[in-house]
């Protein structure tokens, strides 16, 4: 194990957020939530509204979709949404254009690749195994009961420890203020992406060191 750690140490490393960064899952999340809301005769929302509902885990998604509802109704929606969404890997959820090309280049450069998401852990792993099986993601972590969700930095720090890489040498890539706050709290370099769920102002306000418009732009950041 010590020899392995010495080999891994010093390797260039990137931690990616999942939804809004690697994969575009917004429509599937919105459709599943709206289906549950309709079944309960509750108001539904436009797909674009969900850009501001997601990013902090399923509990926050439900709270955002049901701001004025009772906790009892929120709990019912939460359970129904989990069943509706978790029944399958969703057909419309796909990697953003350019993500595979970026990962191909990072593979050639022998980067450590990792994922830290606020999506439930089992589903995070399932999507990585399904959509990114050709890429050796060394650490994949979704939301777990025993680990505080982002923007708490502990999940990111745990990945750094597992890979034996100093936090200050790691790039953290995400699309929301939650990701930028996580990166800064963990003393990592924050790359904010503009193809996801939020805008440049939010990313910069929350500590983004770099802003990129296309996945391949990340190569310029890490190579410089």
Helix and strand layout, with pairings?
Layout: H1 2-8, E1 13-16, E2 23-24, H2 26-39, H3 58-65, H4 71-85, E3 94-95, H5 99-108, E4 112-120, H6 121-131, E5 137-143, H7 154-163, E6 170-174, H8 177-185, E7 189-193, H9 200-205, E8 210-212, H10 217-223
Parallel strand pairs: 1-4, 1-6, 4-5, 6-7, 7-8
Antiparallel strand pairs: 2-3
Helix pairs in contact: 2-4, 3-4
Brief summary:
With 224 residues, the protein is an alpha/beta fold. It contains ten helices and eight strands.
- Report the span from N to C terminus: 32 Å
- What class, by secondary structure content? alpha/beta
- Rg over alpha carbons: 17 Å
Instruction: Tally the helices.
Output: 10
Report the helical percentage: 40-55%
Secondary-structure element order, N to C? HEEHHHEHEHEHEHEHEH
Describe the structure.
Helices cover 43% and strands 17% of the residues. The longest helix has 15 residues, at 71-85. Strand 7 (189-193), helix 9 and strand 8 form a beta-alpha-beta unit. The strands form 2 sheets. Strands 5-4-1-6-7-8 form a 6-stranded parallel β-sheet, with helices on both faces. The protein has a two-stranded antiparallel ribbon with strand order 2-3. Helix 3 crosses helix 4. It is of the alpha/beta class.
Q: What are its keywords?
A:
two-stranded antiparallel sheet, 224 residues, 8 strands, alpha/beta, 17% strand, globular
């Amino acid at each position: 194990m010590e020899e392995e750690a010495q080999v891994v140490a010093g390797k260039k490393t990137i931690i990616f957020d999942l939804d809004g960064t690697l994969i575009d899952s917004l429509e599937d999340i919105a459709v599943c939530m709206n289906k549950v809301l309709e079944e309960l005769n509750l108001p539904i929302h436009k797909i674009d509204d969900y850009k501001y509902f997601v990013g902090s885990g399923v509990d926050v998604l439900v709270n955002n979709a049901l701001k004025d509802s009772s906790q009892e109704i929120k709990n019912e929606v939460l359970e129904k949404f989990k069943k509706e969404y978790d029944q399958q890997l969703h057909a419309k959820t796909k990697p953003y254009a350019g993500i595979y090309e970026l990962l191909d280049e990072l593979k050639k450069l022998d980067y450590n690749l990792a994922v830290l998401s606020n999506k439930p852990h089992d589903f995070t792993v399932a999507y990585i195994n399904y959509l990114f099986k050709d890429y050796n993601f060394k650490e994949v972590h979704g939301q777990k009961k025993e680990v505080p969700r982002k923007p708490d930095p502990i999940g990111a720090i745990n990945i750094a420890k597992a890979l034996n890489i100093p936090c200050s040498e790691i790039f953290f890539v995400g699309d929301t203020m939650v990701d930028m706050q996580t990166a800064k709290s963990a003393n990592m370099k924050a790359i904010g992406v503009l193809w996801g769920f939020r805008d440049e102002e939010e990313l910069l306000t929350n500590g983004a060191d770099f802003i990129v418009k296309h996945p391949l732009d990340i190569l310029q950041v890490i190579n410089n």
